[in-house]
Amino acid sequence: MPVISLFAWMLVIVSLAFIACMFEDLESDIGSQSNPNSQIQLAPEMGYIHRYFNKAISGEGLSYALACTISGTIALVLLLRLEPTSGPKAALLAIPVGAAAGSILYMIRASVCHVGREAGQKRFEQPIYLDVLYGHLVPIATHNFIVVICITTIAYIQSNLALLSGMEASAASVSNPFPLPLLCLIWGITVGAIGSSTGDIHYGAERAFQDKPFGEGRRVVYHGQICRYGDCGVRTSKDVVAFCAKFGGPATGLTFGLIVLFENWRTVIGMMLGGLSETELVNPDIAAGYGIGIGIAVGIVLIVLNTWLVKWTRKKYGPFVGE
Amino acid sequence: MDPITLLIILVCIIIGGMLGSLGVHLLPVGGAPAAMATATGIATGCVMLMTGSAMTGLFTASTVAAFWDSNPSVLLVSLSGGVGAMLMIGFSMFIANLLYIFGVGVVPVSGQVAVDPITKEPQTEYMTPRTSGHGVPSVAYYSGMVGGLTGGFGGALIYVILLSGEYAGFSAATAAIVALGIFIANAIMAAYNIGGTIEGFHDPKFKERIVTGLTCAFIVSLMCGILVLITIETGALGGVM
User: Fold this and answer.
1) Residues 6+ apart with CB under 8 A from A285
2) What is the ipTM of this complex?
C-alpha cells in the first residue's frame, strides 16, 4: 500500500508541476519578461510607442527562484512554529501564507521594474500609462501566486514523502534530504529556465509579430517592430496571455510536467526493483542502476522522436519559399 | 583529514567543474534571438539553461544518494544526475521544436553548417533569409543531449564527493549549495567565453573557444576546490557541515 501511495503522490506532484510551469509562462507573457522583453524594450527606439507591460526583473529562472525561496523560507518558519502543536495541519496555513508573501514581493519588484524601464525610455517619447501599470499588477501577482504555491507544495510533499506515503522511519530515504527552501530554490530555477526556453517562443516569434508573415523566422530587420493593435483597439499584455494560453502556456506546462514525471517515475521504479518495502530499501545499487537505465532509454526515445519530427517537418513544409 | 582524500576531493571538484563548462559549450543556446526564431538553439541564456538542467540532475542525484546510509556510490549518483539533466534538456528541446513547428511554422535548421554533419540533411535552403537559423535541428539536439549529460554528471559529481562520508562528509544541504556555487561559477565563465549564442559541437565557435573555456574552468574550479579544502580543514562552516 505505501508504494501505491508513493506513486499517487508522484502524480500529484506532476499535476502541480504542469500547472506551475503553465502559469509561469503566462505570467512572463503578461509582464513581457525574459527573451521577448528585448523587443518590447527596443520598440520605442524604433518609433513603435506601445501599451505593453515592460518588466525584466532578471532572468526568469532567478526571479522565480527568489519568489519561491521567499515562500519556502516563510512556510518553513511557520511549519517549525506550528507543527509541534497542530501537527501536519500546519501546512494548510504555512504554504498559502508563504506563497502570498512571495507573490506580493514579486508584484512590488514588477511595479518598480516597469516604471523604471519606461521612465528610461522618455527620450524615445514612450509614456508611462498608469492604467497599464495598475491593470497588469494584479494578474502578475495572481499568476505568480499560483506558481509559487504549486512549487512550495511540491517541495513540501517531496521533503515529507516517506511520512505522507505511510513509510516507517527506517525508509526515510524515500523523502528528499534537502530542506524545504532549498527544494523551492531548485524547482524555482528549473521552472523559470523551462518557461524561458520553451514558452517564450510562442510570444516572441508569433504573438509579438502577428502582423508579419507566418511561417518564417523573424528577420533582424523586423526587430523592434512589434504588433501593437489587437482584434479590437490597442493591444496590451493581457491580450497576449489570452493567445498564448491556447498553445505556448500548456506546452510549457507539459515540458515541466513530463520532466518531473519521468524523473520521479524512473527513481520510484528503480526503488521498487531494488527491493523497496515499508521499512527499508534492500539493494541501493540495483535501484540506482535501474533508474539510470530507464532514464537513458527515455533519452533514446526522445532522440528518435525528435529526429523523426525534424524529418517530417522538412518533408511537409519543404524548402523556404519567398524572398 | 589525510592528504590523499583531500587530493581526491580537489580532483573531483576540478573534473566536475570542467565537465560543467564542457556541457555549457555543447548546448544549443540561442539566447533572446532564438525566442524570435532569428537564431538556432534554445531560447534562453547559457547559465539559465545549464543551471536549470543541473538543478534537475542535482535533485535526482540527492534522492539517489539518500538510498545509501552514509557512503553513496560516486559513479551511480553522478550518472543519475547526468541522466536527469539530459532528460530536462531533451524534453525542453523537443517541446521547443513543437512550438517552432506548429506555433511559428518554421523548419528547424542550423545557421552554421550547410549540411547536417550527422543526418546529412541540407540546411541552407530551409532557412529564412537574414536570420541565423531557427529551431533545434537534429545535430544540435544530439549535441544538447550530450551537453546535458556531461554538465549534469559534473554537477552531481561535485555534490556526491562533498556529501559522502568517505570524503568531505558535508550535510546534504551544504553539499548542494557548494556544488551549485561551483557549477554556476563555471557556467558563467563558459557563457562569457561563448559570448551569446552557440549551436553545439558542429559550430565553428566550439572548436575555436573550447580550449580557453576548459582552461578557465580548470582555474576557477581549482580556486573553488582550494577554498573547499580550507573549509574542511579549518571547520570554517562550524557545526553546520
Assistant:
1) A274, B73, B76
2) 0.95
